[in-house]
Design goal:
- By secondary structure, the chain is mainly β.
- It has a single domain, classed as Immunoglobulin-like.
- It has no helices and eight strands.
- It has a five-stranded antiparallel sheet, with no helix packed on it. A three-stranded antiparallel sheet has the order 2-3-6, with no helix packed on it.
- β7 and β8 form a beta hairpin.
- The termini are close together.
- The relative contact order is 0.32.
- The mean pLDDT is 82.
Length: 100
């Protein structure tokens, strides 16, 4: 049984994803921040209820990469979010389709 990954990048998106041939449900996300500093940091929401810190709070977020392993095949919406003091800022998103 194999797993395929399809990453559909949104227009103007700053987020990409590639799968690992050795670990089929593992995905490496890479992306670009907007260079601004966010009070709460920049977070990557994987679409399966899990999140990871992409850029630490207070840093000028320019780029980063995060690995994530999905528990099962499915369609997920991954989002890169800058967490501000008043409101969050969507920096990029993509749809990840993991199939058996």
């Amino acid at each position: 049984m194999g797993t395929d990954l399809e990453a559909v990048t949104e227009p103007g998106g700053r987020l990409t994803a590639i799968s690992s041939p050795d670990e089929p449900l593992r995905v490496t996300f890479s992306g670009e921040g907007d260079g601004r500093s966010y009070f709460g940091g920049v977070w990557l929401h994987f679409g399966d209820g899990q999140n990871a810190l992409f850029c630490r709070p207070g840093s000028a977020c320019r780029e980063g990469a995060v690995d994530h392993t999905y528990a099962r095949a499915g369609t997920y919406r991954a989002e890169l979010i800058g967490v501000g003091e008043g409101s969050d800022v969507a920096l990029g998103s993509l749809t990840v389709i993991v199939t058996d």
